[in-house]
Design goal:
- With about 725 residues, this protein is an alpha+beta fold.
- The protein is about 40% helix and about 20% strand.
- A hairpin with a 2-residue loop joins strand 12 (about 185-190) and strand 13.
């Protein structure tokens, strides 16, 4: 007699309870409880797993979710006497979202938990229930939940594997971090960085690179690049500390994940560490024994020019960027004056001309190395700086404005004095001409820092995660590129000889060259106002008047032998500098961004604003700019505020944000660093459906911007974005 079908189904259900857990489906996640073994044994732990299967491009979170998000939570309902352990978290992956970086899982994750029945558990079946809550995100985040049931069989014999879910459990266990007692770890804080040091026994082996995921969310900057270097049997990982990091941090706890299998750990890639924080640890050079940059910034997309971690490419891009700097408006006045000096001597001794070219090049190269070395030293001390950092100082802007003003007065003939004037005459010594050439190289470098030429941004950004020697090599290549045109003119002056011979026209040309310098002074006054307010502009202008009196006094009585002449000149110069000197505590009060009719409706940038807009599915355009950045201002006026760009942004609902780096802002510095950049301008376009922003070149054209923008569909609701005033 055949048994009824109902009894057969019931017998099958009782025989295979762990295979038959029901599935809870939401819009984005399929959730299910799984049993690792065919049955549980009394008094012995049995592992169950919460399986979360996400739809493509959506993710859930690790125990420390990173910059945003929430970890998955499980509340167990168990039979009497049963206990549940903590979630065993597989190691996470980086999930960059705009300027933020989160930690979590895509595709599938199985969160393991050990359930332990009492020693006197009776054979049979028991119900297990888990109320799970998870946050699932893409551009938007949706909290979801489900109540999941699993029927477990209890029996005394050995339990075999659940063949149906064996691959899922194996993958989950491979992703679990191991605790290796043979590894010794400690950590040290240097400035605003913390270095994790992991030492393995001799011959045990360490991965070439690894990424650290901290347990606590307030210790390291999740989106900042990490730098890993292996030196022999030691692995060093350098990370940026958060501003809110605990001052009394005792241990650095978390998971260190290798790019491949961890040596000696089978197929596992991660180790669990608790490193005691002690004395500062020096970070080794990346090339010393094999190392690389990793962490949150790895894989950041760049503009059309990227170095892709190659020193050779970085040097080439720096050289090309230096060449193109000569075409930037920052450098034109100084180079024009220097070339005029070459014209004067082009018809004379070739050897003297070549010497001047070489000395000018040395001045450029030395100045680039000094500025770069100062920037690297300050960054090593914890100060967040980028290229052009000196122009974030109102005092430096004031000194530069005074210098340009005095040079302009010299050119228009108010006075003739010093090494600069020597290059304008025909009877000076070679020593004077060479000193002037060197100073011209120094001045050209200083005034070039507000400009960023094509290729230059990627090259300077490359230095962020490099040791000092590599960084200085990149800046040296930048200086060589900038000095090369003048050097070639000095060695091959054939073109200069086609110009008229020195004569009265050179005096006129010299005076004309004063006006770009006066214009530069006006621009620097505007920069100072953006940094320190209108009172600083008034102080500068009054100070320049006093300097003009000093220059006029010096020129009017140029042939006087009275001892009072230099005394009066010095007194006026000191008084002028005192009047012009900005108040160190004064800062321009940031207010609402003023938008003119027909221009882009700029909003103030913040990481929170970017996250809010991108989470809402809105395209965002971020302009990293500064008042002292000439390239930035030209791009804005010529391209970004053109009618074609304004209409395209409005039609597609693109929200323009302005990240103003005129004064030093550590948040902007960190955001640039996360994008792999350390100089401005930088233009980042965040598009819906793309986790990473697109970086546009430093020098913009309308066609280039439109080519990116027109990939978005038109949005009728956004047509009001154009300012109607």
């Amino acid at each position: 007699m055949k048994p009824p079908r109902v009894l057969l189904a019931l017998a099958f259900a009782l025989a295979l309870p762990a295979f038959a857990a029901p599935v809870v489906k939401t819009e984005h996640v399929e959730a299910q409880l799984l049993g690792e073994r065919t049955h549980a044994q009394p008094g012995k732990p049995v592992t169950v797993g919460l399986r979360l299967q996400m739809i493509p491009h959506w993710h859930t979170y690790w125990r420390n979710p990173g910059d945003s998000g929430l970890p998955t939570r499980i509340k167990w309902t168990l039979p009497a006497g049963w206990t549940a352990g903590a979630i065993q978290w597989p190691h996470p992956q980086n999930l960059p979202i705009g300027p933020l970086n989160n930690f979590g899982y895509e595709d599938e994750v199985v969160l393991l938990t050990e359930l332990t029945p009492p020693a006197d558990a009776k054979p049979g079946t028991v119900p297990v229930q888990a109320a799970a809550n998870w946050l699932v995100c893409k551009e938007v985040c949706i909290p979801e939940e489900g109540v999941l049931d699993l029927t477990l069989k209890v029996a005394a014999g050995d339990a075999g594997p659940n063949e149906r879910w064996k691959p899922s459990f194996e993958r989950a266990r491979i992703m679990l971090p191991v605790k290796d007692a043979s590894l010794k770890s400690d950590a040290g804080i240097t400035g605003r960085n913390i270095v994790l040091r992991v030492a393995a026994p001799a011959g045990a082996g360490l991965p070439a690179s690894a990424t650290f995921f901290p347990d606590r969310d307030n210790v390291v900057e999740h989106a900042a690049p990490q730098r890993a270097v292996r030196v022999g049997d030691t692995l060093l990982v350098e990370m940026k500390l958060q501003d809110s990091a605990p001052k009394d941090l005792a241990t650095l706890d978390g998971v260190l994940v290798a790019k491949g299998a961890w040596p000696g750990a089978g197929d596992r890639r991660a180790v669990e560490l608790s490193a005691k924080v002690g004395s500062p640890i020096a970070m080794a050079a990346a090339g010393s024994a094999g190392g690389s940059s990793g962490g949150a910034a790895s894989g950041r997309p760049g503009s059309s020019a990227e170095v892709d971690g190659s020193l050779g490419a970085a040097l080439l891009f720096a050289f090309l960027g230096g060449l193109l700097l000569n075409l930037m408006p920052c450098v034109f006045p100084v180079l024009g004056i220097k070339v005029m000096g070459f014209v004067e001597h082009a018809h004379g001794e070739p050897g003297a001309l070549r010497t001047q070219g070489l000395v000018f090049s040395v001045g450029v190269l030395v100045s680039f190395l000094v500025l770069a070395g100062l920037m690297l030293a300050l960054r090593a001390g914890g100060t967040q700086l980028g290229w052009g950092f000196q122009l974030q100082s109102p005092a430096f802007v004031t000194i530069l404005a005074v210098l340009f003003f005095v040079l302009a007065l010299n050119l228009v003939g108010v006075f003739e004095w010093g090494l600069f004037a020597q290059s304008m005459t025909s009877d000076v010594s070679a020593k004077g001409r060479n000193a002037d050439a060197f100073l011209a190289g120094v001045l050209a470098t200083v005034v070039a820092t507000p400009c960023t030429a094509p290729f230059m941004g990627a090259a300077v950004g490359f230095t962020l995660a490099q040791p000092a020697a590599v960084s200085l090599a990149v800046f040296a290549a930048l200086g060589v590129g900038m000095a090369l045109p003048v050097l070639l003119l000095s060695f091959f002056p054939a073109l200069l000889r086609k110009l008229p011979k020195p004569g009265a026209w050179m005096e006129t040309f010299k005076q004309v060259m004063a006006f770009p310098l006066f214009a530069t002074v006006a621009w620097l006054a505007w920069v100072l106002g953006a940094q320190s307010g209108n009172d600083a502009i008034l102080g500068l202008l009054l100070g320049l008047v006093v300097f003009a009196v000093a220059a006029w006094t010096y020129g009017r009585w140029a042939h006087s032998e009275s001892v009072m002449r230099p005394v009066i000149v010095v007194l006026f110069a000191v008084l002028g500098l005192y009047v012009a000197w900005p108040d160190a505590s004064a800062r321009a009060t940031p207010g609402a961004l003023v938008t003119k009719a027909g221009e882009l409706p700029w909003q103030a940038w913040s990481p929170e604003k970017v996250a809010e807009l991108t989470a809402a599915g809105k395209p965002v355009f971020v302009d990293y700019t500064a008042a002292w950045c000439v390239t930035c201002q030209v791009n804005k006026r010529v391209v970004l505020n053109s009618s074609a760009i304004v209409e395209a942004f409005a039609l597609r609902g693109i929200v323009p944000l302005k990240a103003d780096w005129t004064n030093n802002d550590p948040r902007i510095t960190e955001s640039l660093k996360a994008l792999g950049r350390n100089a401005i301008p930088v233009y980042a376009l965040y598009l819906p459906g793309e986790a990473q922003p697109r970086l546009l070149p430093e020098v913009l054209t309308s066609s280039l911007v439109l080519a990116q923008v027109e990939q978005l569909p038109a949005s009728a609701a956004s047509k009001t974005a154009v300012t109607q005033r």
